[in-house]
Design brief:
This protein is α+β, with helices and mostly antiparallel strands. It contains 4 helices and 5 strands, in the order αβααββαββ. The protein has 2 domains: 59 residues, Orthogonal Bundle (Arc Repressor Mutant, subunit A), CATH 1.10.10.10; 34 residues, no CATH class. Helices cover 47% and strands 19% of the residues. α1 packs across α3 and α2 crosses α3. The longest helix is centred in the middle third of the chain and has 13 residues.
Amino acid sequence: MREEDLDWTVYHRIPENGSITARDLVAATGFEPGAVMASLERLEHYLLVRRSGDGVRLLSVQESLIECQCRHTTENLPFVIENGVIRAKRRED
């Protein structure tokens, strides 16, 4: 199976509201745990999901867009996002 097809299947098994564990995704998809974990890493890299502890949840469009902007314009923004928390950058004098 192509990675894109695997990612599509895994992505659509994550509930729209709430989260699911990787173990539950393995059971829901029937794929090997290693394949599901690799898919989750790609989906997180593409700013489509967020993993926190054992849970995985979908990012909203707004979250995905702001994360993308932060990733590609970090030196110009007055804030950073760390683990879902927005904080002001420290000024280095």
